[in-house]
Amino acid sequence: MTTDTATIQPYLDHHGRVAAALPGGELPWLAGLRETGLSRFSRQGFPTARVEAWRYTSLRPLEKVAFEPASAAGGAVSIDVLPTVMPAGQASHRLVFVDGAFRADLSSVGALPEGAVVTSLRQALTGHAALLERYLGHVGVTDANPFQALNTAFLADGLVVHLPKGVAVAEPIEAVFVGSGGGAGTGKPTMHHPRILVVAEANSEATLVEHHVGQGDGVYFANLVTEIVAGEGARLHHYKVQRESREAFHMATVTADLAKDASYDNFVLTMGGRLSRNEIKPVLNGTGVECRLSGSYMVNGRQHCDTTTVIDHAQPHCTSREVYKGVIDGNAKAVFQGKIIVRPDAQKTDGYQLNRALLLSDTAEIDSKPELEIYADDVKCSHGATAGELDDDQLFYLRARGIDLESARNLLISAFLADAIEEVRIDTVREAFQGMVTGWLKTQRV
Length: 446
What we know:
22% helix; Fe-S_cluster_assembly_SufBD; SUF_FeS_clus_asmbl_SufBD_core
């Protein structure tokens, strides 16, 4: 069951007004891709709670807002306050997008290995159109994700990374997505739909760091889609922090096609947004694949965050691991839906899944739904989910040693989240994320 036509009609009307101005209009394959996306979105609409995958997340707050497409040039931001995950002095390739539009004046891409491509999607439409035609819109496309379809319909800009065979990019690639909340000069809430495409050929390696942040208190809708193609033996580290403004809406879909012996690890740190959802769906399409999905979420007030994962073991001798931990305060709500699918031929699968939540108030809520869907008999799979409060005995122990209540609580919360953050394999990124956790805790009060 989806929402009625009236809810999605404004999006269809907006598309009709901006379609002619979208980049790459001279490319027939791109026009067809957008039309297919629009058609899918029109058929699907926004899901209601009657759709199993959306049972615990209501889209009513999103549906009530009338969004306008963001300006093609992006909104105004101040370079003095533009954030970064990477520490000062750390070499990295940094691309900045404001309201979904690439800003060359705020970006810096250093020297890359021969053949490697790190550029904006708009620029790639001119210089790497054949690469985009081959891969864009072909990874994990489904009729069950209207936000993926909506992104494709409005596809205009984003990040493109191409790693040829055997190429390793030593420095992290950081993509900063800023929501200006500026209303494109109209004072109305805006929406943007950035796209990320990563093609890592055989035995290549890179680290991608996404930073999503809002400026001010404006209302906006960020709808991100990421497609990942990892060739045989490729290694991709993919890390993300979501710090949108408190009134923003953040929907993100990640699909990944992982070939033989590929290694993919994904970590999401969720802190911002009024309503957010991270949907991550890798397919283990070759033997010997290692896939690690993990994350931490910290929400309070009336925030709602949703983490939905589906790891599809399509081939034998693959390993997957999931560790998600969250802290929920005030009237906030978190959702975790994790599914591991083991196909009939995927013998010798090793799958592990864990979700733990810490509830800091009587009105905080967690809905956790771990699932195993197994069609093979020679596998090792397990899952678990727990929710609880801070341990009074541990608090007493710390306070008895002269630590005040607020500091004691923060120490216990930080230690609780540290287990998940340890899943981040890159030291500088892990330390940066831990620093953000510490910063968040300082804003909380007992």
